[in-house]
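This section describes the prediction task in plain terms. A model, or a person checking by hand, is given the sequence of a single protein chain and must write out its three-dimensional structure as a string of tokens. No templates, partner chains or ligands are provided. The sample shown here is typical of the held-out split.
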Amino acid sequence: MNIADFAKYPTPEEWDSIIEKKRESWNKIKLNEKKQKKYNILDLSQIDQMELDFWINEFNDRAFALANNYVMLRSYYDQGIPDDPYYESPGPKGESVRYFPLFTDEKHYVLHFWFGFYTESFYTRYSAIIDTVYHIINAKYKFGISPGTGFIKKVLNKLKTVDEELYVYLNDLQNNQVFKKFKKLRNDIAHNFSPSQVSSGIKREQKEDGSLVISLGIGDYTTTKEFVDNIDESIDLLADIVEKIRTKIV
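The expected answer:
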């Protein structure tokens, strides 16, 4: 079976049904754009507003793309991916471990592939939207901080001096359990072994005496349900973030 056999877009009715699952939050994840978008580039007094307006437009474009990404990953998830439990040990033929014992059809592997494909994209897009929030704040308050290493931290430090309430809220996101799990999954997707795939199960531990202990066990894996639960909660969190900044940037 070719993976392209199941690479399809949902019907308009399916699309609406999936969006409806998080309709309330999606409706909040949009910032008001100014209807008048003509600027006099020779008038320096308009430069700051122009930059802010462009960042707000960028946020809305990214939010729209994120919603479409969500529809795609949910469309594959909703078809049924039986990955829990993701292993059995011992296996039916004497194997020490058998992964995905409930994948009884090639279709399950294909659905799992496409779900992972769009899930990894979702986490990348979501991170970009969070970054955009700080660019909006930077433009709104005219901090003039250039993008680069430590950008978010620099924006927060400046924000603390002009809007402590918003600073406390954004700074406390690091302690939010949904956001912490999101960051862990996103970091593993980008920099480590993808949690949407079963790892080798090889563990290395450096002892205090300098010796290295290597062990082999069941590979790590994050189920599709765990991903969807975190994604749904992250969408609600993003809606809350947007509600917090909405009145600050008008």
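For orientation: The chain has a mean pLDDT of 93.
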